[in-house]
């Protein structure tokens, strides 16, 4: 059996299309344009690429994009003052502070300064608590994208055994909460988990969010399982030439594809969904702020 390849790139384009439609409808009916503010502190090259892509896709979806680039030495107080200004700005419906922040800035303090209603990354403790108690929250983008792909591929998830490998606040834990919300039987595995291979083999849905290149081989996967590979790892690729690299996931794709029922590739799987879900969250935040119905199929 060869697994179905879940095309995250194509699915993300569909999600962005739905967002653009929602934005256009909002604009026509109510004269409202959703706005996303992205704050970047410092010159981390990877973060600069993310921020540029976020800005471009925001504008493509018909939303307003506000980029704030601060230098690496910006005092914490100045960043907090900017967040306060964005919190108060009615044209801004979503605020994202690009992580990681420079060492002298307390990340937790900055994240909790963001108005929870504008917290499109879903990292504010209030949103974490709302998600954990099954209430309407802003949901972190990467796990939201994984959930959308799972629902699209499998339909009803209830009763399925889901194993999430990784327990970070940005991926593993919210992913587990979302799967629980869809009535899966959820196991969270991590670096101290015993018999990890056995645990993985019980999964109808296996989500890998570890950050270790190809650590999950095909023989850890239950035949027919749906595998979502969140990992993004850069490894040497001497076959492409000296000093060249390539991206791989946390799952060994070539062996996993022989066993799984469906699998997301890396690149082109979960990655493109993250920005699409950021746009979806901004539209959702805008609708909520204006007391309007939320867009269908774009929330948890
Ligand atoms: P973290 O480093 O924060 O968390 C990694 C988790 O993996 C931890 O819970 C850790 O366990 C667990 N872990 C580490 N080693 C093992 C092991 N040998 N066996 C089992 N579990 C292990 O990473 P993130 O959650 O932030 O990211 C995970 C991956 O996803 C990375 O590759 C990252 O680049 C990628 N990513 C991709 C995104 C996308 O848009 N596609 C977005 C965000 C992340 P413990 O808690 O015990 O230490």
Number of extended strands: 11
Give the overall silhouette: globular
Which fold does the CATH topology of the largest domain refer to?
A: Rossmann fold
| First-residue to last-residue Cα separation | 32 Å
Structural class: alpha/beta
Report the sheet with the most strands, covering strand number, pairing sense and barrel closure: 6 strands, parallel
Give helix and strand order, one letter per element, not per position: EHEHEHEHHHEHEHEEEEHEH
Classify the helix fraction into a percent range.
40-55%
Query: C-alpha Rg, in Å?
Result: 19 Å
CATH superfamily of the largest domain: NAD(P)-binding Rossmann-like Domain
How much strand?
15-25%
């Amino acid at each position: 059996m060869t697994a179905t390849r879940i095309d995250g790139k194509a699915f993300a384009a569909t999600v962005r299309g739905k967002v653009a439609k929602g934005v256009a409808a909002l604009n026509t009916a109510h004269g409202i344009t959703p706005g996303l503010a992205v704050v970047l502190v410092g010159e981390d090259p990877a973060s600069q690429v993310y921020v540029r892509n976020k800005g471009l896709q925001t504008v493509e979806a018909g939303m307003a994009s506000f980029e704030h680039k601060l230098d690496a030495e910006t005092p914490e107080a100045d960043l907090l003052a900017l967040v306060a200004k964005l919190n108060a700005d009615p044209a801004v419906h979503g605020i994202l502070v690009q992580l990681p922040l420079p060492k002298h800035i307390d990340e937790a303090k900055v994240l909790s300064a963001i108005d929870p209603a504008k917290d499109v990354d879903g990292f504010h403790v209030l949103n974490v608590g709302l998600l954990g108690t099954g209430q309407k929250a802003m949901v972190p983008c990467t796990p939201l994208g994984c959930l959308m792909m799972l629902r699209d591929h499998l339909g009803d998830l209830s009763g399925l055994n889901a194993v999430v490998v990784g327990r970070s606040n940005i991926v593993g834990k919210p992913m587990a909460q979302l799967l629980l919300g869809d009535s899966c039987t959820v196991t969270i595995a991590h670096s101290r988990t015993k018999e990890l291979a056995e645990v993985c083999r019980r999964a109808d849905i296996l989500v890998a969010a570890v950050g270790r290149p190809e650590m999950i081989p095909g023989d850890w996967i239950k035949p027919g399982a749906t595998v979502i590979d969140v990992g993004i790892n850069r490894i040497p690729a001497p076959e492409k030439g000296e000093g060249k690299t390539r991206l791989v996931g946390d799952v060994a794709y070539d062996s996993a594809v022989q066993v799984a029922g469906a699998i997301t590739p890396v690149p082109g799987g979960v990655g493109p969904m993250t920005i699409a879900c950021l746009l979806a969250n901004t539209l959702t935040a805008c609708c909520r702020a204006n007391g309007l119905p939320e867009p269908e199929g774009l929330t948890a």
